[in-house]
Write a structure and sequence with these properties.
The chain is 42% helix and 14% strand. With 332 residues, it is an alpha+beta fold. It folds into two domains: 91 residues, Phosphorylase Kinase, domain 1; 202 residues, Transferase(Phosphotransferase) domain 1 (Transferase(Phosphotransferase), domain 1, Orthogonal Bundle). α3 packs across α6, α5 packs antiparallel against α7 and α7 packs antiparallel against α9.
């Protein structure tokens, strides 16, 4: 049986270049694919000008209204003088274009490198910018984009993996038992955290989605923007031992609280959010496996060794969930 074509099969170089040219740019034919899996992102050469970055959204992932909410959030941040790379206006003044069955937008090209989050000064400055981003994000919620649901998302994604027979038979029982315990502990910690404020977030705020350019921070890729607790945009910057993470947390908060009070009880959500990321990332790979880019880039996914390692990571995460929550130095 001939496999059905993947939607991105229709995204040819000619379609990309024609779409950019239709927006008034004189393309020079240079087209470079950039590192992106969920969407397709290209550097497009422009005659006698700096290249532009073209982002073609994965069909059926976000609706037009959800994408436009992301764009409006970025523009709000720019207007608040926060260093965010926001979409460029197109020929019709809007930020979202159509090319065949694809939605796309354009960004200015910006160089830079990921920040060194091992440096205290870098964490302090990141905390300042995140405090300002969240001050804007707290003014109102997204109406179209989703809200983070920690326990529910873990449950839905582990069911998808089990129902799809992705997990080797000899490991299924271990996986089911382990995730059941993780769900219980996540639910316990979320309950202990109590009612927390939900705000608009970057959503995937790791060092790879930031650039340092001439000592200026730049925040990029708001594709995962959604409503959720403020801690979601901080914990991905933690690494190392619990003591090291506590120090990083303190440095971030020192900068953050110059612009916005941090709801400290949200520290109880850090490990549930980490558990959510472990499970949902694996489910994401399974959901996208029919995209040819995924088997090429993640050839180890689905192998027994992968699932054995994944279960080990989940077991370690369960132990962390059962340990005392991260605290700032000098606080219990």
């Amino acid at each position: 049986m001939t496999p059905s074509p993947h939607p991105y099969d229709a995204l040819t170089p000619d379609l990309v270049l024609d779409a950019i040219e239709a927006e008034g740019y004189r393309v020079n034919g240079r087209l470079f694919g950039l590192n992106s899996y969920e969407n397709r992102v290209y550097q497009v050469g422009i005659e006698d000008e700096t290249p532009v970055i073209a982002k073609f959204y994965r069909p059926q992932r976000w609706s037009e209204s959800q994408i436009l909410e992301e764009h409006r959030f970025c523009q709000e941040l720019v207007e608040a003088e926060i260093p965010v790379i926001a979409p460029l206006p197109l020929a019709n003044g809007q930020t979202l274009g159509h090319a065949g069955d694809f939605l796309f937008c354009l960004f200015p090209q910006r160089g830079g490198q990921a920040p060194d989050v091992s440096e205290q000064d870098t964490l302090y400055r990141l905390g300042q910018w995140l405090g300002r981003i969240h001050a804007v994000g707290a003014t109102h919620l997204f109406e179209e984009r989703p809200t983070i649901r920690i326990v529910e998302q873990i449950d839905e994604d582990q069911r998808f993996l089990l129902d799809g027979n992705w997990i080797p038979k000899d490991l299924r029982a271990s996986y089911e038992t382990l995730v059941r315990d993780i769900l219980l502990w996540c639910d316990r910690l979320v309950t202990e955290a109590g009612t927390y404020e939900t705000i608009r977030l970057h959503g995937d705020c790791h060092a790879g989605n930031m650039l340092v350019r001439q000592e200026q921070m730049l925040f990029v890729d708001f594709d995962d923007a959604r409503n959720g607790p403020a801690i979601q945009d901080l914990w991905l910057l933690f690494n190392g031992s619990p003591d090291e993470q506590a120090g990083q947390f303190a440095e971030l908060l020192e900068g953050y609280e110059m612009f916005r009070d941090f709801p400290y009880r949200e520290r109880l959500l850090i490990e549930p959010l980490r558990a959510r990321r472990l499970v949902t990332h694996t489910a994401w790979l399974a959901h996208r496996w029919e995209d040819p880019a995924f088997p090429r880039s993640f050839p180890w996914f689905g192998q027994d060794r992968f699932w054995a390692d994944h279960i080990l990571a989940l077991r370690e995460q369960l132990a962390t969930l059962q340990s005392p929550a991260l605290a700032r130095p000098g606080q219990p």
